[in-house]
Design a protein that fits this description.
single chain, 272 residues, alpha/beta, Nucleotidyltransferase, domain 5, 2 domains, two-stranded parallel sheet
Amino acid sequence: MGVARASLYAVLKRKERDKAILAKILRVLDARPYRRMSQLQDEIGDSTKVIRRVMKKYGILKRRRKKWKNSKENKKTHAAPNLWKGRCPLAPNAVWAGDFTEILFHGTKIYLATVIDVFTREIVGWSIGRTHDTDLILRAMEDAKEKCHGRTSELFHSDQGSEYGSRRFREWLVIHRITQSQSVRASPWQNGHQESWYGRLKGGLGDVNRFLNSDDVHDAIAEEILLYNTRWTHGTLRMSPKAFHDLWERETPLARMVLAQKSRGKTRVKTV
């Protein structure tokens, strides 16, 4: 038929290889539907070009998180100005960002508060509770302080939730000499690091109703935070947050400036 034997077997081998890659892709996306392409590459072991080709060939679409509605910012007065906008830290513990989210478990709500180091993208503190109150976020801040060996950030950024504007929380910031920064109301993208993290977390957890009790949910959240800090490849850093932090600790001052540029990504920003 005019077809070389080598060409025929090459096509057959490629089909077998594609099916093997397909099985790996489906297994990874079934466990965590929101995996980034770089994370798929790390777990599957093939190039992103090959993974994209196989996904396109078999009509596989990754689930995407909802994007924020690009509406105009609400210009109403708020408790603290947005001192974080347009800036970027140059070292760990320069800027922390905080927020909390709710997780629906068998009809009841579980609230998770986290604190993220904006420079390293590490989750440095977190707490879980049945109510979203000042105690919830203060426990997360105390956890961050403990895990950072008593150190705190110079700037703390959050939204305008009543918990972050409470007298007790503001007093805690004053005691620890932390400047407060808050997003403009109805502008979640101004606290994008936290919003992005919660999207990843919920994608990794999947259906929490499969767990038997709230303790299992607590353990699953702790495992996801550990995986994110130590093993997940961050899209901007191209490594895990913990690996980025350890690399910064080992490098010289000149090399640290290069890492600071890496932490910024492609955005041109001021430094703090």
